[in-house]
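Ticket closed. Logging final result for Glycerol dehydratase activator.
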Amino acid sequence: MTLEQTKGMVLRIERSSIHDGDGMRTVVFLKGCPLRCQWCSTPESQAFQVETTVDGSKSYGTEMTVTDVMKEVRKDTAFYFISGGGMTLSGGELLAQPDFSLALLKAASMEGISTAVETSFFGKEETIAAMVPYVDTFYVDLKAVTPSLHKKYCGVDNRIILHNIKFLDRQKGGFQMILRTPLIPGVNDSEEELHKIGTFCQNLDRLVYLQLLPYHALGSVTYKKLGRDYMMKSVKTPTLDMMDRCRKILRTYNITVQ
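Final structure:
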């Protein structure tokens, strides 16, 4: 099978995004994720197979080849170069489709298209190593440092994630590493957990900045459509004061926090 013929499961492709990397981006959302974060805003991305809403009105997931995806990505090539944008691979979890993800990153790089990935980093070290030459920016989720906390709310232990972040920190190349922490009230907003996050981040040489993202319940409607219960109904979006308080704690570790 050639690079162009490599197949994967795609949730959707969104063009003209300005929130998933520098400049104007085409975001390729892959389908399938080994995590089950209780606040997940895209529950339709979790299962690896095609899913249909309870009422049968909508299906999620399409098998595509690299050729299929790149046809869409190329449509905004002119805007990439003007805005400094490019292609972003998101999820789901792209490390769960390693061959397809690597083939897409290679294809974009061969055409001079800037690449970024959004990932939980729950995957194999060798998969990450293979991608490093073809990724300009890694956006990696750091949901929690305490393993038991991560397992309770995300369904998996986070030790492999922390290991992979440290592994990426040791790699050579021109890529950027940006960590993202979704701030979930009652989950990872305690001073104890924030100090653990700060301690972990201050030892990373390649960290550009840590981005603190406020929790929101935008995915709750899709849970209902899929006939699934949304477990974070009682959680409120953190206030601006709360976000500032958490940023101040993290900044005491001499890291840039956005």
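The two ends are 43 Å apart (CA to CA). No further action required.
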